[in-house]
Every structure is written in structure tokens, then in C-alpha cells.
Amino acid sequence: MLNGERQIPRPLRWAMIGGGRLSQVGYKHRSGALRDNTAYQMVASAFDIDAERGRDFGVNLGIAPERCYDNYRQLLAEEAKREDGVEVVSIATPNGTHYEITRAALNAGIHVICEKPLFFTSAEAQQIKALAEKKGLIVGVTYGFSGHPLLMQMRAMIAKGDIGEVRMVELQYTHGFNANDSADKFSDAQKWRVDPQVAGPTFVLGDISTHTFYISQLVLPELQIESLLCDRQSFIPSRAPLEDNAMVLMHYAGGAVGRMWASSINAGAMDSQCIRVIGSLASLEWSDANPGELKYQVQGQPNQVMHHGMPYLDASALADERLGALHTEGLAESWANIYLKFAIAISASQRGDKARLSNLIYPDINAGLEGVRWLENCVRSADSGSTWVNYQ
Amino acid sequence: MLNGERQIPRPLRWAMIGGGRLSQVGYKHRSGALRDNTAYQMVASAFDIDAERGRDFGVNLGIAPERCYDNYRQLLAEEAKREDGVEVVSIATPNGTHYEITRAALNAGIHVICEKPLFFTSAEAQQIKALAEKKGLIVGVTYGFSGHPLLMQMRAMIAKGDIGEVRMVELQYTHGFNANDSADKFSDAQKWRVDPQVAGPTFVLGDISTHTFYISQLVLPELQIESLLCDRQSFIPSRAPLEDNAMVLMHYAGGAVGRMWASSINAGAMDSQCIRVIGSLASLEWSDANPGELKYQVQGQPNQVMHHGMPYLDASALADERLGALHTEGLAESWANIYLKFAIAISASQRGDKARLSNLIYPDINAGLEGVRWLENCVRSADSGSTWVNYQ
Amino acid sequence: MLNGERQIPRPLRWAMIGGGRLSQVGYKHRSGALRDNTAYQMVASAFDIDAERGRDFGVNLGIAPERCYDNYRQLLAEEAKREDGVEVVSIATPNGTHYEITRAALNAGIHVICEKPLFFTSAEAQQIKALAEKKGLIVGVTYGFSGHPLLMQMRAMIAKGDIGEVRMVELQYTHGFNANDSADKFSDAQKWRVDPQVAGPTFVLGDISTHTFYISQLVLPELQIESLLCDRQSFIPSRAPLEDNAMVLMHYAGGAVGRMWASSINAGAMDSQCIRVIGSLASLEWSDANPGELKYQVQGQPNQVMHHGMPYLDASALADERLGALHTEGLAESWANIYLKFAIAISASQRGDKARLSNLIYPDINAGLEGVRWLENCVRSADSGSTWVNYQ
Amino acid sequence: MLNGERQIPRPLRWAMIGGGRLSQVGYKHRSGALRDNTAYQMVASAFDIDAERGRDFGVNLGIAPERCYDNYRQLLAEEAKREDGVEVVSIATPNGTHYEITRAALNAGIHVICEKPLFFTSAEAQQIKALAEKKGLIVGVTYGFSGHPLLMQMRAMIAKGDIGEVRMVELQYTHGFNANDSADKFSDAQKWRVDPQVAGPTFVLGDISTHTFYISQLVLPELQIESLLCDRQSFIPSRAPLEDNAMVLMHYAGGAVGRMWASSINAGAMDSQCIRVIGSLASLEWSDANPGELKYQVQGQPNQVMHHGMPYLDASALADERLGALHTEGLAESWANIYLKFAIAISASQRGDKARLSNLIYPDINAGLEGVRWLENCVRSADSGSTWVNYQ
């Protein structure tokens, strides 16, 4: 169980780019990174496109005024001059800027933690992967709910054969907060998400379903998509060509199949993302609306519900537990867990501890690359008349 | 509210063909028809392919021994000789016999209530429809859960515009009872379902998802499928070409989309069928696992749950209520409701009351035809590489 | 599994007293008795205090006009004259008439099925018990939901020691339909329930919580109350001295404790009755809002949910199953089950089959007597300042 | 919405007493206090009765070694010598030490945040209250889940009359983790809780149900208990006289009634605490197992569920929101909220801002005192034969 004690020799010097006062996700980054003050210290920032607002915000959070920068270029340039300059930056800016900021940070010798979807193209992701490897730097991707301990439980049980042979993977990330277009018009946080220049080639597929797609890879590391069909819609026509609803079918190597439903027009839905993995003997199901429960349904036996923090769980799940059984955990604990793993990876990288790196499970550059690759295949299918495409 | 009082001048003389001692569904037919003894009297039977067992069973249920027939041919022939012969038969035999028995009964001047899927082809359904019209006889189809009062509520609310413009229809009928093949081998009730000669061109699509498909038509009478894609699997290889899992995508006229998931390999799932209709303002969701509750989720407002039997419901929903609020209803009440509507239709037909017939909502020959047509399109798509096909 | 086949040599000749057109519970009696037409035939009635309305109703249900009587006295007198006279009557009249009608019926040599609470006093119940024994007649009590198969499962598991030593019994039957007094004023079905002359010494304790109390006795046949404390309220003052809310504490022999909460002012509650039995190893919980599920919670293990109709259940639970797994059962199946057991008891009694009687578990005269006794103790406690009283 | 920006001029210098490496609750204190680094800085500690282990732990958390003290006396003495000495301490030691540490800290001019139950007697609480007032210092009590935004929603709706006149308050905090005595024997965290010398006059009443009792006072600030009855049990006999199960009945001024059930022998229960407030028009219900949902059930209308973070909530609820709708919050956010309010209170106290203090709603010394008072009345009742006692 985690109790905040240091897992690495000293906290990393950390900065945020984007994620300022008006950003909801920015607070999740900070809550995740600063949960215990033993993994990160927030020493610099370029929080906002409105530099003054960003500086004021940074100061309010306790950053030294001179390290509250106007923009990421200034941040990288000035911090490079300091002996105690930042070691890692988190990027919580609109999608269209991820690539250039990541590249610049890596070129400045700084580790990167970046929002999803990582980039617009898998070619970009491949370049960044090569660059990071060359530089010996870590790139982490904030698939925010993927740090929940019960997902490690799911992974462990599937690996042990508890559900038999995998047959179907049912994925969903839907809500209804864009059922109408008012946020498109009035919310700065939403406007750019439906602008292909800034958001990239997808809206809901990239914005939300990449989370669930990564979770499917986390719990099913062996599964490979062979072909895929994506059918997407723009129920608010002004969003076209970007989709506010998408239905994906997948064929995996070995005969298993899958579905994904991504939507922000699922009016009134308050249960977000869900993954169900169906095996020949049993199914496992987890939803982030009730993240402390894992359904384990063995055909022909009473249905079971496993609870976080309980001694019967796998060691890998208990290792990431923070509050203990009966004490409801939420999204913040998951962010704290993935940020802690980023820090462990970065520290191992700094120390050249390849063994530690090799068995650390977290959303790394490959996870980011796979997310972009999946989106590319989805778009390719959708744009060719929602037909089956070989997964490339 | 229904309390068993007669809705038609006198109970109809009714017989069952199939659905004998070993049949689970046979009891649902009897429970539905005989709920109040004011709609039907069970006067004859041909319960079983094992004539002796069928006769013994019929006598045990109170049928006169001489009217417990060896098979449907004998039943039709002998009953035709009686002044008090049967007026309506229910057919609960394997799919492959529906067509010939229905045709024979109609030709004998007898109304028919038949299990789903109605026939193997829509051409057969068209022929039977023409025959029934010519004879002035009713053909009802036992989509068993479609009689639940909250489905009338759903229909009424959608018609009133309570959810806005319909955007997506999410359909599911899945369970895990055929996750392995033991029933295929050892259960008479299951064996024929995976034999194309007897079951027809589908297994789970016809066996279970036609129920949910009809419910979608019941609550959304205006919706028309324009094209459809079906991807089906035989996870137990011996079932091929029949599927034990199928994923269907649908495009409706006007831009709405839909999904159906039919499966009998959803290991451990105990929640059967579900329908969610998503509109531009709100969603409605109903599941037969908790049939007395209807979720009404208006975007931006607290989620609502409506309960059966409550005065705030639409008159059409309250008209079909039997037990009253707080008193849990199940599948049996739904069967009783559709059987009652069959009786009302038959009686109206006998009396030539076309007005009564014209505004009676129940699963009639058209509902049966539409189910077969949907299956045909699914199979055509699946067999052409799971591609989109225009709905024919 | 039950499929409607006869369990007794021939259906019993049955009549209803009360429970006519305006009665909600009357339909439950008829649905229960006539489920399969192999246990009862409804041959006579005295449905209504408005004799004309009662006759019209009876005729509409198919009873011969001459056997639709004006009142119970006439019914008993006239039926006594017939060779094919009624063998058993069901009493669904207001509480205050149960005693006299039951006594009259027994004196006429007729078996009785009666609504709860059986009588006003346990002295009356003792007299009736003696009379029934003397006459060799059955008295059954319609604790309507007590026939659900999963209650037999609960009983079997507790008996087998699956939950360890019983420590606490948590009981609840609450709703909010009398949160205000409009029904008291305008509903004939409600008016008498708050009139002590007709309802007896309690309102909600007798009207609803006797159901749950009986269920506690059904699943825990060994448990004996030693002392009890009842605190009751009349939130609608005009109901005083009758309570619309009551909280009961119980001490059982051996150290276990219990609680009961009965209420009709639990505004907005739609989940009716619940029983949770806590043992030293595990708990079992069942609610009539979701009657097909039984929660089995072993401390330190994943929580389990058992479903009706599944092969892993105890034989005693499967014996009472009607629809099968996945097919939602409700209150009507439970009524059918207890009515069937009444019929089996009556038939055994007629045939002098004491062995059959001795191992038949159903709500008999003793169950009715215990309910009245419990109410007496509750009232005695409440009237003495809500103090502990020794159970008498 | 809270995003971590400073609410007070600068973070408070804070130390922990108790709550070290083996303590589960210690991590909750730290997570709460240090959520944003704008309310508290952890500068000193006396974490552990094993001083060496405590020092090692403190260093691992980033505290300067010289400020990792052996015990609270040393901490208070040494910090008093520093210009930058601690301003506030949190006490997470066993109950029996709360009083002396609190008194010593206040006498040293230091604000106090203390675990519940605050002290053994209300006399002690009154003394501390007087001392704190004399010194102008804050005493906060860590009723950990009381900071959830939906409790403010509940309070606001009740105040606005949304549920009508309050009739019943149903309270529960139960689990099954002490169904057997293994933890009593082997867990240091549990041993002292069943030792009256250390735990005080109660086990589960003080250990868990004081949380729920405070929540009832938070949402119903006007409600006054007039009399109370407590029946408590020691199902593990070695725990006597301390209870592992207790049932409390309450009579409030004005006629409302209440129940509390506290238990650590509720085998298999994983849903912890629940509060339901029943009014003449509607009920509100909240459970910490699903803290982001508030049930609002208006009699005669569809049941409603309100979700955290939604614009339809009261401003007081939205003010305490951290993650936003759809993003699951848990116990940690609640701790962060109450710790933030403690900081605001302390800062206001330091600045002499009485206006800010007067309208700040948080668990203060009065809340702690009321908890102890409630326990005293419960024990007095239980020890007098579980009889009604006037609330003193």
C-alpha cells in the first residue's frame, strides 16, 4: 500500500505547460503529481496562453514569480540556464501543440508527461519515440484513470487464465455533455476540441475513447487488432468532419472481437467509461463510475464483486492501493498512481536503472503511439465509408 | 389497471402445439394465456414430439384426454370436426416447423400465435401475411417481454418529444449460457437451435435479439433502417455457420444510428436485454433485468427513474398494469399482456370490429415479418464479409 | 421446476370473500390461485360489500351468476347445500372481519386462506387454531412474497451454517404512499386501515411488517424472541393511536439481536421490504424490489450475488422455480407458490396424508398466530412508553 | 470549484502527532492537508511511538531530520523555540491521548486538528473548548467524509424546504472487518480500539458512528435530540464492555425520530455509512460507498439522483467541488475539503477575521463536543439496561 513515502531518492523538479486557472484537467495533473510531495516539486510553469493570468495563477500556487513563464519556449530557455532547472514538464495544452512542445522539451533534455491524444499522426509519435530513446528520456501519457489498482487486478486475473480464453472486449466511453452545441460556442475548454486544426483528426475518439483503448491494452497486453471498422457521426453538424459519436468494431488476432462506443451526445449518461472482457469461462467488468468495484462473473456460479484494498486481491493491485478497503477512491488516486510511475521511470532513467524500467507498467511513449495509431485506423475506416480496414 | 375481468365476450378455445413437459417456454405461453381465464380456455393440445408424453402432460394440465393429440395434423383435423373446436393455436415448436404449421392452421380457419423467429424467410412471412389477410385471421408473435407497461411509457414519451430528436438506439440481448457446448450436446432444448436445418439461418440473432429488435420497433414505430452491417462469430466452432455472438450496426433514415449485440457467450452475464434510446435532449433506458424501472435521463438535470404502476405514467402504460406500484412484476405479466392483446385482436376479428383492430398495438404478423426481414439482412451482410448492405 | 402440472389429484373448489373490483390485493389472490388451473377452480364468490357490484364482477370473471353471493354468510349457507360446494375460501376483507369469517367457514367445514394480519388478538388465533385442528382443516395466511424461491435458498444456507452463527436480523418494510393523508380521506382501500375498529391495534406494523416478520421466521425457524421494544409514531395525527411509522428492537434467545422498521411515510422509497441476516462468517440479504437476487457476502471474500433458477441453488429453492434463470420473476410467482402449497396442504389434509403435511413449509395457522403475537408484543411495548417487554 | 489556488495568504506550518508508517488514517491526514500545498506545509512530526521508526518515516516524507521529534512533548518544546515553529498540529494518536495532547498544544499556542472521538468525556471537551476560546485558537475534528460537496447540497435542500418537514433520520455506519477477533489479537491498529483504557467508553459507536452522527448535525443543524435509547452488544465477548454492534433510537424535539446502527460485525458489508433524511414531501439519501450521488425521492414523482459537480446543484455544494462532474471523487477530496476549511478558520483566527469565522461550516470544537456528548448519552442508556434517557 502506498502511504506517500518516497519511492525515488528525491522529488523531481517539475513544471506545467498549459493547464492553468480555467483548465479542469490542469488540477488533475497537479493533484496527481503533488499528492505526496515525494515524487515532484512544482518549480516552474507556463500555465496559460494569457501570460499574465498564467503568472498570477502560478504565484497563487506557490511558484516563484520569476519561474512563472509567458510560454513554453521561454520556460525551456530560462530553465536550461539554471542549475536547478526543471527535469520534467507536463503538457496540458490543446492537442495541436503537443508535438512541437514535446519535441522542444526532449531536445532541451527534459522528460515529458503529455496529455492524450499524444499527437496527430503516428509518424510524429514514431519520431518522438526515436528522439526520446536517443536522448534517454521518458515520455509519459496521462491516461488518467488507467492507474486504478483494480485494472492491475484485471490484468493479473486475465494473465492467470481466470476468465479462460478471451473472446470479446466491450469498450465504452460516453457522456452527454455535448448533446447540444452551447459549449462549442461559449466554452474555451470546448471550442478547440471541435476544430480539426487544433484537435486533430478526431473529437470524441481522441478526446475520450483513447483512455478506454489504453485500458484495454493495459489489461490485455497480448491482444493485437487485425482489422477494424469505424462508423462516426457529427450529430451537431458544425462539428463535421469531427465526430461527436463513433462506433468501432474490431477483429483481434486469434479470433476475439471487440467494440468501442465513444460519444459526447449520450444525453444524460453519467457513467463514463466501462470495459468488459469476456472469456470462455468468465467475464471481468470495470467502470470508472464505480471504480472501487470489479465484477467477476463466472458462468454458472454466483456473480462476484471484488473491492479495492481487499487482501484477496493480487499483489500488483494492492501495491497501488492508497486509502484501503471501504475508503472510496476516485480519479485523483489514479492520477497520483500514474504520476508516481512516471517519476519512478524518470528516476530510473536518470540513474540508468534499466531493470527497474523494464518491468514498470505505465502509459509510456508506446502507449501514446498506440493510441494515435488506433485513431488513424479509425479515421481511415470512417473516411472510406465505414468499411473494414487492415490495422496498420 | 388490469384485474382479470373479461375484455372480450367469452374466452377463446385455445390449443398448444409444442411447448410440452420439457419446454421452458411452453409454461410461459400457458401462464400468459391462462392468467385470468377470461381470455382463453385451453381445450386441446399436441404438446410433444413424444406423443405419449405429450398426452400425459396435457391430461395433467386438465385437458380432456381425447383432445390431447399426437401431432398438429391430427389436432387440426379432429378439432375441425367439432362444433366447439379450437379457435386459436399457439405454436411453440422448433423454428423449422413454424411455417408449415402456421399455414396449415390458417388454412383450417384457425388463428395463430407463434414463437419467434417466425419463419426462415421473409418470403414465407409475406405468403402467410397474405393468407391470413385473405382468411381474416390473426397471426400473433410471442415477443415475450414486449408487453411490459413501461415500454408503452417509452413509446409515449418518445412520441411526445420528451427526449428530443432520436439520435442513437442501443440494443442488447446477451447471456452466457452457451459459453461452452455442453448444452449443444446434452440438452434437447438447445440441440436444434444450432442446427441450421431446424433453427434457420441464425442462432442468437433469431433466438434472442429479435425480441429486442421488436421492442425497438414498438417504442420507435417511425424509425426505418436504411443500411446495416452484421459481424457474427461462432466461438464454439461446431455451431458454424450459425453464430453465438453478433454485433450489428444500423443506419436509420434521417441520420440516427443503432447498435445491436446478441450473444449467448457473454459469460456470467445475468441481465439479458436492454434498450437505450438517445435523443437530442434526453435518453430513455429499460432493461428486462429490472423491468419495473425506466431510466429517464435529461441532459443537465438529475437522472430520473420512473416506476411501473405510478400515477405519473402515461395512460397507455397504466392501462397494461396488473399488480400496482411496489409490487414487482416480471416476465409473466408481460406474456399475459401480449396474450390478452392477441385475444382482443382475435375477438375483434371474429366480430368484424375493424376500429378496435386498427388501434391495437401488439406483435402481429407485420412484427413477425419485420423480425425475419431483419435477420435476412443481418445474414446477407455477415455472409458478404460483414459489410454494409442496403436494407431490403 | 414448476410448470403447472398437477400436484394434487384434482383442482380444489374455491371461493373468494372480499377482494373485488376495487381491491388491488384481490387480483393477487386470483393470480396466485389460478396460475395453472390445476390447484384451484374459482366456483363461487362474495366479492364485495356492494353485492351488485360484486356479482357483476364475479360474472365477468366467469363465475356462474347463481354462485356470486351477496355476502359470506349466504355463500357458506348456499354452498353447503351443494354436492359440488366450495372446499376452500380465501378471505380478503378488512382485518376486523377475518376472525368471524374464518370461524364461520371452519364451522362450515371449509378450509380457509386468509389475509394478514390474521386477527386482532392471539387469543382469537389460538381459538381458531384449536378449531381448525378439531375440524381437521387448514388455515393458510397470505404472506404474499414469502413464496419466493430465494427465501428457501436463504433458509437452506443458514441451516447449513453458511453464514456461521446468527448475530443480527435486520428487517424493513417501508414505503411513502401515506406520507400525506389524502388516501386516508379519499381511498376506500386505505380508509379502514387507519380505523382501529376495522384495522385492529396497528396500521403499518400489521399491514406490512408482518410480511417481513414472517419471512424472518421462515428463514430462521429456530430463532426465538426473548424481549422486544417498539417505538411507534403517527406522523399524520389523525391516524393516532395507529402508527404510520414504527421502529422495533428485538433480543433473541442466544444473544442475537434484531431490528424492524415499518413505515408508510418513508417518502419516495420504492424498495419495500428487505431482510438481512448477519452471521459470524457472512451475511445474506434479500429485497423484494429485486427478488431474483440474493446477496451472499462472506467477510473477507468477494461479495456474491446468487440468481434465481441457477443450478447452484439448493434443491428446495429450485423446486419452487417457475420461469427459469434470466426470466424475471415477481410477486405473482410468489403468490402462486404459496397458493400451491395451501392446495397441497388441503389436499393432503383431505386424504389424511400426515407425512406430506408434516414436511410442508408454508404460512399456516401458526405463522398467522405468530404474526398476531408479535403485533401484540409491539403494541404492549409501544403503549408502555416504548420500553422493553418480555415476549409473551 | 476548487483548483488548488491559495485561499489563505500563505500555507500554515503544520506538524503531525501520530499517524506514522503503520497508520492508515495518517495518510488521509497528509493527503487532506497537502492536497494543494497552498494551505499547509508539513514542517515537523512526532509520527510514532517508536521514535526511530517515526523519524525515518518523517525523513522519507521530506521533513527535516531535526524536526522529526521523538514525541509530542519534545515537538511542542522545540518548535516553541523557533521563529518558524509550527502553527497547527494534527493529532492522529489513539483516543486516550487526545485530551492531554490537545491541551498541551493549545497551551503552547498552537491550533489543533484532532481525530474523533475527540475525548472520553464532554467535561473534557468543555474544558478544551473554554481553553481554545481563551487562547483564540481553533480545534478542528477530522470527521473525514463530512467534507463531501453533496452533504452541503443536502443541507441546502433541507433548509430550503425541499423535503418538507423532517420526520425521520436514518443513520448507519457498519462494516464486517471485526466479525472475528483476529485483528484484536494481531493488529496494532485494532488492539487499542477494544481496550477501554485507550479507546474510551465505546468501540464502534465512537470509532465509526460519530462520523455519521456529525453528518446528521451538518445537514440538519436545527435538530435537537430530546431522548435516546442505545442497545449495544459485544459479539466477540473479549471486547466487553466495549461494543462491536449498537442500535440507537432517538427522539428529536418537534416529533421527528431517528435510528443509528453502528457495527463492525456486519459480515461482508462493503458500503460503510449512509444517511437518509425523510421529510413530509421527500427523502434525501447519501452513502459514502457512492459519494458522488445524492438520491432525491419526492413521493409521487420519479426518483431522482443528483450527481456531484452538476450546475443544478446549490452554490454551497459547487464551491467545494474539485474534479468536476463525471470525474469520480472519493474520500480524499472530502479530507482535503475539511482540511482546507480548518486552514481558512485558522488563518481567519490569526487575522482576527471574525466575520469569516462566523459563517464557516466545518467540524469545529462544538462538533467534537457534540460527538462526545452523544456517546455519553448512548453509554448511559446502554448501561442502564438499554432504556430511554433524556439527552443531557
Q: Which helices and strands appear, and what pairs or packs with what?
A:
Four copies of one chain form a homotetramer.
Chain A: E1 12-18, H1 24-33, E2 40-46, H2 51-60, H3 72-80, E3 88-92, H4 98-107, E4 111-114, H5 122-135, E5 139-141, H6 149-160, E6 166-174, H7 182-186, H8 188-191, H9 196-199, H10 204-219, E7 225-233, E8 245-252, E9 257-263, E10 273-279, E11 282-287, E12 293-298, E13 303-307, H11 315-319, H12 331-351, H13 354-358, H14 365-383, E14 388-390
Parallel strand pairs in A: 1-2, 1-3, 3-4, 4-5, 6-9
Antiparallel strand pairs in A: 6-10, 7-8, 7-14, 8-9, 10-11, 11-12, 12-13
Helix pairs in contact in A: 1-12, 4-5, 5-14, 10-14
Largest sheet of chain A: 9 strands, mixed
Output mean pLDDT of chain A.
97
Which structural class best describes the helix and strand composition of chain A?
Answer: alpha/beta
N-to-C span of chain A: 40 Å
Please report the first level of CATH classification, the CATH class of the largest domain in chain A. Answer: Alpha Beta
**What is the second-level CATH architecture of the largest domain in chain A?**
2-Layer Sandwich
The amount of beta strand of chain A, in percent, is: 15-25%
Count of structural domains of chain A? 2
Within CATH, the superfamily of the largest domain in chain A carries the name Dihydrodipicolinate Reductase, domain 2
* Oligomer type: homotetramer
Number of strands of chain A: 14
Query: Can you count the helices of chain A?
Result: 14
Which residue ranges of chain A are poorly predicted, with pLDDT under 50 across at least 5 consecutive positions? none
SSE pattern of chain A, N- to C-terminal:
EHEHHEHEHEHEHHHHEEEEEEEHHHHE
